[in-house]
Amino acid sequence: MTRPVKVRFAPSPTGDLHVGNIRTALFGWAYARHTGGTFLFRIEDTDRTRVTDEYIAAAIDTLKWLGLNWDEGPEVGGEHGPYLQSQRLDIYAYWAAKFLEQGDAYHCYCSPEELEATREKQRAANVAPGYDGRCRGLNSAQIAGYQAQGRGATIRMRMGDGETTFTDLIRGDVTFDHKFVPDFVLVRADGSPLYPLAVAVDDILMKVTHVLRGEDLLSSTPRQIRVYQAMGVAEEGYPLFAHLPFVMGQDNAKLSKRNGEVSIAWYREQGYLPEAICNYLALLGWSPGDDRENVSMQEICELFTVEKVHSSPARFDMRKLDAINGDKLRALTPAEFLQWSLPFLTRAGVISGTDDEIALVKKALPIIQERIIKLNEIPAMLRFLFVKEFSVELDCVSKVNDAPSKEVLTRSIKELEPLTAWTHDCIEAALRSALIDEMGLKPRIAFTALRIATTGSTISPPLFESMELLGKTAALARISAALAL
RNA sequence: GGCCCCGUCGUCUAGCGGCCUAGGACUCUGGCUUCUCAAGCCAGCUACGCGGGUUCGAAUCCCGUCGGGGCUACCA
Fold first, then answer.
1. CA A28 distance to own-chain centroid
2. A262-268: long-range contacts (C-beta < 8 A, 24 or more apart)?
3. ipTM score here?
4. How far is the CA of A69 from the C1' of B41 (A)?
5. Distance between CA atoms of A9 and A41, rounded to whole angstroms?
6. Distance CA A70, CA A119 (A)
7. Range in A54-58, A399-403, A442-446, A480-484 with the lowest mean pLDDT
8. Angstrom distance (rounded) from CA A257 to CA A261
9. What are the Cα distances from residue A362, in Å, to A336, A338, A382, A395, A465?
10. Which residues face A155 on adjacent strands?
């Protein structure tokens, strides 16, 4: 009860970390920080046919990028390592042997085919499918017989009669009758450990106090508890469980690849800020309790408690994420915004990174900061400032090459040419008096032609600021060029 | 099928017996502002799955029902 809080995040990286994983990580991290406890990061790679080194490295990178730092785990180490399950095989072997010796577990010689056949029969007979326990009480002659056949054996945990009740921090008391929890495999026939063994052993050995995980694991909890018992752990030593509801896709199905983008790597490439992702995810199944929605990482830590997490699933809504990302982007200081923007501009080939370019970017960013919702929109908005071969968007050409537009452009050149101070105020003043006051044009009409001529599109950052940034020579050259279209 | 979990606007949520003719946010619609696009401001639409109880009183408690989801592996 008085144990210091230690929350663990233990993904099995069989692919890029996705939205659901990250929300679990975020909640665990926030809870650890909230309580002043420890956040432990462990990699569950007992199934090395599905978990790769690349995915593990990516998972570590993603967590770091999001700012979900861990106190124990890969790279930082800790007193209960190693933190990759594939490096802890001897530990699992030790406990499996011990369970066998204690009679908590037994060898099962059934082949996968036989087990499948049994399940088939159970399904047909409308009985709860599951291991029927046929190897539970094998005598030495039967064992010798199986061994003579050269059959491999798995190690199975004996569940025994009765029921298991545990208190889920989110759902309250949950009870499972052992009739519906068949004896389960701890160790494969090839000797490798399975999740139910590894997860339980590690959580105990690593002194984990809080297990936050997806609700898909809810019904496997009695099996973990069974392992704790076999390890001789007293109930006070069990971790507390909190099974988080799912994050669903738009169509009410579990979020998946074909159901919107789930990989955090994708969001990173699109230009979502880590803080926006975490803020949005924090609101999925949890709320600060008041009407606050824009919360910082620090506020999340201060306010987060598992008890306030919902028990019902939440739908992932990218439009809300967009709204939050826009808010976060607008709240960035100029220096921060510049740092986030530069990689997107260079990657898109808009700039190569020279000092002159960066200086211009720095001047241009303020006028687009409130106009974007994702960083990957920046290159398109600023490209016109850097292109050598300027061109006008195809569907805009017809809007500048008509007679009225040409008149606007011609007059503009005449007005701009003599300007000595090339600032947006001066440009605007000159153009307004000529085009609006003297020619009597509506601003919308007059400036559209100029906008296309200078930026190449009908949608752009503010016109006069854009012209200023472009510089007098280039701006006039473009207007002249547009006249020739 | 069995076991388990879940059910407030389209979506995320506030609500934990009276403050609810149900609040906020996103989306959407209309308006203001306006050099385009945004941003900002104002207004509007829309919800307690259903049926029984308990109670003076229920979104809030209980039961049932319907609906959704998970598990039912030598995956996790």
1. 14
2. A262/A18, A262/A19, A262/A20, A263/A15, A263/A16, A263/A17, A263/A18, A264/A16, A264/A17, A264/A18, A264/A19, A264/A21, A264/A22, A264/A62, A264/A66, A265/A16, A265/A17, A265/A58, A265/A62, A266/A16, A268/A62, A268/A65
3. 0.94
4. 40
5. 5
6. 42
7. A399-403
8. 6
9. 11, 7, 11, 30, 13
10. A107, A187
Could you give the angle at which helices A443-455 and A472-483 cross, rounded to 10 degrees? 100
* A111 CA vs B72 C1’ separation (Å): 19
A215, closest nucleotide (Cα–C1')? B70
Contact in structure between A45 and A83 (CB atoms under 8 Å): no
Distances (CA, A) of A23 to A17, A285, A325: 10, 9, 17
Residues forming a β-bridge with A107: A155
* Residue matched to tokens 């105990």: A204
**Alpha carbons A274 and A415: distance in angstroms, whole number:** 47
Per-residue model confidence as pLDDT tens digits over A235-247: 999 999 999 999 9
Task: Give A469's Cβ-side CA count (13 Å radius).
Answer: 28
A277 CA to B2 C1' distance (Å): 39
Return positions of chain B under 7 A from a protein CB: 1-8, 10-15, 23-27, 34-40, 68-76
The catalytically annotated residue of A179, A257, A308, A363 is A257
| Residue A12 half-sphere exposure toward CB, CA atoms < 13 A | 17
Query: Average pLDDT, whole number, for chain A?
Result: 92
- Residue with CA nearest C1' of nucleotide B4: A219
User: CA A249 to CA A235: how far, in whole Å?
Assistant: 38
- The residue among A61, A73, A67, A85 whose CA lies nearest residue A7 is A73
pLDDT at A404: 85
* CB A250 within 8 Å of CB A242: no
CB distance A81 to A72 below 8 Å: yes
A450 torsion bin: left (phi>0), alpha (psi -120 to 50), beta (else): alpha
List the A208 CA – B18 C1' distance (angstroms): 44
This model's pTM is above 0.95:
no
Residue appearing with tokens 């569940």 = A159
A257 is catalytic: yes
Q: Which residue is nearest to nucleotide B15 (CA to C1')?
A: A289
